[in-house]
Design a protein that fits this description.
It is a single chain. It contains 13 helices and two strands. By secondary structure, the protein is mainly α. The chain has a domain at 179-358. A two-stranded antiparallel ribbon has the order 1-2. A hairpin with a 2-residue loop joins strand 1 and strand 2. Helix 1 (2-27) crosses helix 2 (29-54), helix 7 runs antiparallel to helix 10 (262-290) and helix 7 (179-220) runs antiparallel to helix 11. The model is unreliable at 349-358 (pLDDT under 50).
């Protein structure tokens, strides 16, 4: 009877801790999220630096400091290129806006005439119904938040780089010199390897999807093909929902760019085919054998982190799930949770280390 009572108490404590954790993640978003983003960039920059270090030039590897500097410059160049593509396309949108407006008004008039509505509202009349002051205020607050979070992220990132040389010493001091240290290091290596596999596979798949989409949109003649390809590349890191959004936006732009509906169906069908080919056929062949994650749990996890941290949470949802599954699989008490997170119920990493529980 006492054992049953203790189980209920323990279950209540766990439920309370879970609710408290979610509350802290939401309430402390402005502080915690920039740190997590900084941690992601810190990991990716170091990952790229290690990749550079594996390269051999005349039989010699490049120095560590040079590889790190090259990795940092690579990320700065990628960020600059992204900003450049976006700024160039903003200028392009302003140039073609009158043409888009005329096409949109023409299609609205045709649609309303089909339903028997004689007088269609103009674009100017629709804009007048928008609370411009509220829109500007909301936009300004969003931009201020982005700038503030970016500054805080850079500060966190700088301190992570400063402290990374002492992290190994801290880990040794924290765990102590005993047999458990090797188990913890093995766990951390497994987490790093699986996250690296996910990032590498997703990066290659997203690059292929973005490149094929760019060529396809360029052939069709869709405006701002480079911008849409960049958007498709970025949104592909959000499972399922990102791919859907990445297909809808370029298809919708054809409605105001072209006079007929043919390009709309062509773009929608073509981009969907590319997404299905790479995202649903090729990519799972690699991720399925390496990460072994349940697709249903991935979607639930995506929704959960979307509620907690919005779009950044969606980008981070799968890496978080990878880390959780590895940790749960190494702890006998949470093995059941790891089995539920897996795709086929097999936990090879746990079976290998059953004799060495942490």
């Amino acid at each position: 009877m006492e054992d049953k009572g203790m189980k209920i108490v323990n279950l209540g404590i766990v439920a309370l801790m879970v609710m408290l954790t979610f509350y802290l993640l939401i309430a402390g978003q402005e502080v915690i999220l920039p740190f997590v983003i900084a941690l992601v960039f810190w990991y990716l920059i170091n990952l790229l630096a290690k990749s550079y270090q594996r390269l051999e030039i005349s039989g010699h590897n490049m120095p560590g400091w040079f590889c790190f500097a090259l990795s940092l410059l690579s990320f700065v160049a990628m960020f600059w290129g992204t900003v450049k593509v976006i700024s160039m396309n903003v200028d392009g949108v302003l140039e073609v806006a009158p043409t888009y407006q005329a096409n949109l008004e023409s299609k609205m008039n045709s649609l309303l005439a089909y339903f028997g509505i004689e007088q269609a509202p103009t674009i100017e009349q629709l804009i007048e119904q928008i609370n411009l002051r509220q829109f500007i205020s909301s936009t300004a607050l969003s931009l201020t938040s982005i700038v503030a979070n970016s500054g805080l992220t850079l500060i966190y990132l700088a301190f992570l780089f400063i402290e990374q040389k002492n992290m190994d010493k801290k880990l040794s001091a924290l765990i102590g010199e005993n047999g458990k240290q090797e188990g913890v290091r093995k766990l951390l290596r497994r987490i790093s390897d699986d996250v690296r596999k996910y990032v590498t596979i997703k990066l290659i798949a997203s690059l292929c999807t973005g490149t094929l989409s760019f060529i396809f949109l360029l052939v069709i003649g869709v405006d701002f093909a480079a911008f849409w390809a960049l958007l498709i590349f970025l949104l592909n890191f959000i499972p399922t929902i990102g791919s859907i959004i990445a297909t809808i936006f370029p298809a919708l732009i054809t409605l105001v760019q072209f006079d007929t509906l043919g390009p709309f169906f062509l773009v929608a069908g073509g981009l969907t085919s590319i997404q299905v080919l790479i995202g649903n056929i090729l990519e799972p062949k690699f991720t399925g054998s390496t990460l072994n994650l349940s697709p249903t749990i991935i979607l639930l996890n995506l929704s959960l982190w979307g509620v907690i941290w919005g779009i950044p949470g969606m980008f981070l949802s799968v890496p978080f799930m990878v880390i959780s599954m590895i940790v749960f699989s190494h702890l006998p008490q949470t093995r059941t949770i790891a089995v539920l997170l897996s795709s086929d119920g097999r936990l090879s990493n746990l079976e290998e280390d059953e004799s060495k529980p942490l």
